[in-house]
Write a structure and sequence with these properties.
By secondary structure, the chain is of the alpha+beta class. It contains two helices and four strands. The relative contact order is 0.11.
Length: 112
């Protein structure tokens, strides 16, 4: 075992086997693959277009197109895509900031 240092002093680090490390990497890649998988499915189902501003995208700039979960639950990924809408990064930011602005305004009015 080796010692690692942190702000509280040395601590013991238990080494893991090569197989444990490979399994950890496979798991991490698998979780990332699931995220990429629903994005690719949504792009295929809904096309390379923003559902809000109707801006069209192509392969060269599709990285600017995001998948918004309508119900806010990132784990709710039905195969038919009913919880997804493709939004450009600007519209996606706008969508999420609306709730923040609404909360702010309603709290501001309640304090008057």
């Amino acid at each position: 075992m080796s010692a690692a240092f942190n702000s509280r002093g040395p601590r013991t680090v238990k080494p893991i086997s090569q197989e444990q490390a490979r399994e950890l990497v496979r798991k991490m890649r698998g979780e990332r693959a699931d995220l990429d998988d629903y994005r690719e499915k949504s792009l295929k189902i809904n096309g390379l277009i923003c559902a809000k501003c109707a801006r069209e995208f192509d392969q060269s700039n599709k990285n600017l197109l995001t998948v918004h979960h309508k119900d806010g639950n990132h784990k709710n990924n039905p195969a038919n895509g009913s919880n997804w809408e493709n939004l450009c990064i600007h519209c996606h930011d706008d969508e999420h900031s609306r709730g923040i602005l609404g909360d702010y305004l309603s709290n501001d009015r309640n304090s008057l």
